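INFO  loader      accepted 1 record
INFO  loader      residues=93
INFO  predictor   begin
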Amino acid sequence: MLCWDCDELVFNPIHYLPLIERKINALDQAAPLQGWDLPEEFATLRRLMEVRMNRQGRREYVQVLRLLEACDLADVQAAVLQALRMGRSASTR
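INFO  predictor   done
INFO  writer      dumping tokens
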């Protein structure tokens, strides 16, 4: 999308998630995702998923991001926080 006031391209990262899900190796290099300011919990979730499941963890992380296509950021963030808490409590048993 072109920002007419600032004469530059502005990407909506959410629109690119289906493609990135199919081409998972593009996750770190995708220009539309650069500078996407997500809460820190998302990065924590990604690291944990990648450690536990490697490539499949990245794909599942993108599926979590795709929840933003239908849900508010605050709702998805709350779910991510709950998942992180549940993971911590399960690992301390």
